[in-house]
Amino acid sequence: MNLLSAAPLWAAIAALATVLVVTALYLLKPPPRRMLVPSSLIWDRVLRQSHHSSDRLRWWLSLLLAAVIAVSIVAAVTRPQLTGAGEAADRLVLVLDNSPTLATRTTDGATRWSHALAKARARIAARGPTTQVMLVDSMRRIATPGFEDRDAALERLQQLHVAYGGTPRVPDIARAGEVEIVVISDGVQITGVPKSARLESVFEPVENAGITAFEVRPLPADPRRYQAFVEVSNAGGADRSIEIAIAGVGGRRIARTVNVPAGGARAQLIDVSSLEAGPVRASVTMPGDGLEADDVAYALLPMRRVVRVGLVSKGNPYLEKSLRAQPRVRLTAMSPQRFAERRDIDVWVFDRFAPRTRPGAPALLFRPNSVSWLPTLGKEIADVTVAAWDGAHPLLENLSLRDLLVERAVSTRLASGAPERDVVLVSARGDVPLMVAHEGAARRVSFAFGLEDSNFALHAEFPIFLGNALDWLADEHGAFAAGLGFVEVPVAKARVVAPDGTELPAQAIPGGTLFEVTEPGLFTAVSASQRLRVAANLLDRRVTDVNRSPLAPVQSAALESAQAPLFPLDPWAALLLASALLLVFEWWTWNRRATV
Amino acid sequence: MKAYHDTFLRYCAEIEAFCRSHGWGYLRTTTAMPFEDLMLKALREQGLLR
After folding, report:
1. How many whole angstroms separate alpha carbon A453 and alpha carbon A408?
2. Does A9 have pLDDT greater than 90?
3. Element (H, E) at A318
4. Pick from A292, A297, A298: which is nearest to A102 by CA?
5. Most A CBs within 10 Å, among B7, B12, B31, to test the A interface
6. What is the mean pLDDT of residues A185-189?
7. Which contacts (CB < 8 Å, 24+ apart) does range A146-155 have?
8. Tens digits of per-residue pLDDT, A211-235?
9. Does A337 touch chain B (CB under 8 A)?
10. Interface of B with A in 13-42 (CB under 8 A)
11. Cα dihedral value A253, A259, A264, A269, nearest 10
């Protein structure tokens, strides 16, 4: 809202008053000047021959010019909010697509998003002053859209930015009612565009390469060694040579160049065992790359230290031998009677035993006895058949439990108070939990059956499971993988620290913490009892594929000229300029005796 | 002033034309010139005086 702007009625009154004043000044006749002349003979003839009608016309022309000049100045100063013909309180719904692909650079050096903003500004400015605008974004960052005046809509437009996470779509609110709907988009990801909407394109094809998958994981055959899986996609129209680089702590760098076909992807396995434990950054480099957000990805290379394992068992040769065979385990075996809490143990393995109080270190338990800190045990069941297992969980990675046979198990009832921390990874028919992982300050994995009651210890995959379990229980196990956008981590009331040490705004939610990430990075969520590294990466092929749009390409230069206003001046400033020009014109006509 | 000037010239032309049409002489001067000088000059121009 312009402070100088006046209501139309007051502006009209001011203009009318100005015209009246000007007219009154024109009607004022100064007293005739007296002069002594020798004869009035010639003067009489001059007066008789002069054209009265021409004078009257000149007077009216002069008055008209003066009135127009005066009204123009008054209008330019008061800036009345007039309603044009046919513009009676019209409404416009403006939907801006702020999905990740809008961050793509265009050939003029700007971005699709900046072109979209310019288009939106031009559409709002082109409407009448009383137009009501509802600004809506496809990523729903405007929580409660509503109709507002042009100035408020322009202000809200400035606060919008490209957002990540979720599926970009035109909200239902933009479909209701008989209003004009304009959607400004590159057409790559947006969905739900109503048929009645006018779709304005900011799409321009560009070259783009991006990382669409990145993971650092131990070799199944040798947990001491790590490899990085990197998938690179080429969204451009030509085969390209793309450099992949993986950098670790201390500046060590592994680079290789791969040829990726147009519209295709290439996966690479790179041995990163030579890198120091800690943050790992993968990046791709290609000249003319259009999107920055998919050019880097982060992961965490876990510590590879000796794990001190305490085995508490009445005697289990399979388990003890398998643990001793683990490459980085230092085993201490003891009987349940000799068990005592120790500070020099990193992971406890309890076989058919559980201490009365929860141990300080993480624990792996095989058919523990009933204690208060574990889920309640029920009746024993026989001939158990494995029905389902979660192969995506780090504990069961590279494992198949298809041939697992269990003679006897005990049914377990998970505590109803905190079910979100207990995850059932293996279950028998009838949803009977066989293996439960507990997330928390001290992790634990609990089996509902003993090793001698199953063939699990005889499986070739049993040592792999033990390796996975020790990694998961003892290590800072990789990083919590998250996408860009809103990230929810299972750390309650946590502070979230960015890679540069700044603290991100975070919000406590039940059982965790919520924060927003706008660029890839390795973040740290810290609470009083827990510390979690979060690798936030884009890793989305739908975003990297920035050219998959049904819209016709528009050259960015053409976009720029289409958005440029025909007349760069504010209308009221133009009116003031016109007044000045009229004043010059009036002065010229007066000098030419065309006006009085 | 231009209208006055034009009207004045037209008025003088009318008088001159009237004089010529009746066979009268016409001589235009300003009040700044003494009457005797005017008459002597006019008579000399007509060859009535030397």
Report:
1. 6
2. no
3. helix A317-325
4. A292
5. B7
6. 94
7. A147/A91, A149/A1, A150/A124, A150/A125, A151/A1, A151/A2, A153/A94, A153/A124, A154/A121, A154/A124, A154/A125
8. 999 999 888 777 678 899 999 999 9
9. no
10. none
11. -40
Q: DSSP per residue over A184-219, as a string?
A: EE-SSS-B---TTSEEEE-------EEEEEEEEEEE
Nearest CA in chain A to B9: A42
CA distance B30 to chain A (A): 13
Instruction: Give the integer Cα–Cα distance in Å for A179 and A194.
Output: 12
CA-closest candidate to residue A413, choices A422, A425, A401, A403: A422
pLDDT tens string A382-423: 888 889 999 888 899 878 888 899 999 998 887 665 545 788
Location of structure tokens 């009892």: A529
Q: How far is B24 from chain A (nearest CA, A)?
A: 23
- Beta carbons of A46 and B4 less than 8 Å apart: yes
**CA–CA dist A348, A342 (Å, integer):** 10
Cβ-in-10-Å burial (0-12, 13-18, 19+) of A95 comes to buried
Long-range contacts of A109-117 (CB under 8 A, 24+ apart): A110/A556, A112/A186, A112/A202, A112/A203, A112/A204, A113/A161, A113/A162, A113/A202, A115/A202, A115/A556, A115/A559, A115/A560, A115/A563, A116/A184, A116/A185, A116/A186, A116/A202, A117/A157, A117/A160
Cβ atoms of A15 and A8 within 8 Å: the answer is no
Mean pLDDT of A292-318: 89
Q: Is A486 exposed, middle or buried (0-12, 13-18, 19+ CB in 10 A)?
A: middle
Q: For A542-554, what is the mean pLDDT? A: 91
Contacts of B8 in chain A (CB under 8 A): 42
Instruction: Please give the ipTM for the structure prediction.
Output: 0.80
Q: Under 8 Å CB-to-CB from A124, ≥6 apart: which residues?
A: A92, A94, A131, A133, A150, A153, A154, A157
| CB-closest option in B3, B8, B11 to A50 | B3
CA dist A222 → A5, A225, A267, A269, A323 (Å): 76, 6, 22, 15, 14
Q: pLDDT tens across A253-297, in order?
A: 999 999 999 999 999 999 998 888 889 999 999 999 999 999 999
- Chains A, B: CB contacts under 8 A, how many? 14
Query: How many residues are present in chain A?
Result: 596
Instruction: With CB atoms and an 8 Å threshold, state whether A46 touches B11.
Output: no
Cβ atoms within 10 Å, residue A415: 12
CA distance B7 to chain A (A): 6
* 3-state SS assignment for residue A427: strand
Burial class of A58 by CB neighbour count within 10 A (0 to 12, 13 to 18, 19+): middle
Whether the CB of B5 is below 8 Å from some CB of chain A: the reply is no
Q: How far apart are the CA of B8 and the nearest CA of chain A, in angstroms?
A: 6
DSSP for A134-198? EEEETT--SSS--EE-HHHHHHHHHH-----SS--B--GGGTSSS-EEEEEE-SSS-B---TTSE
Is the entire prediction scored with pTM above 0.90? no
A484 membership: H or E segment, kind and range = none
pLDDT at res. A196: 86
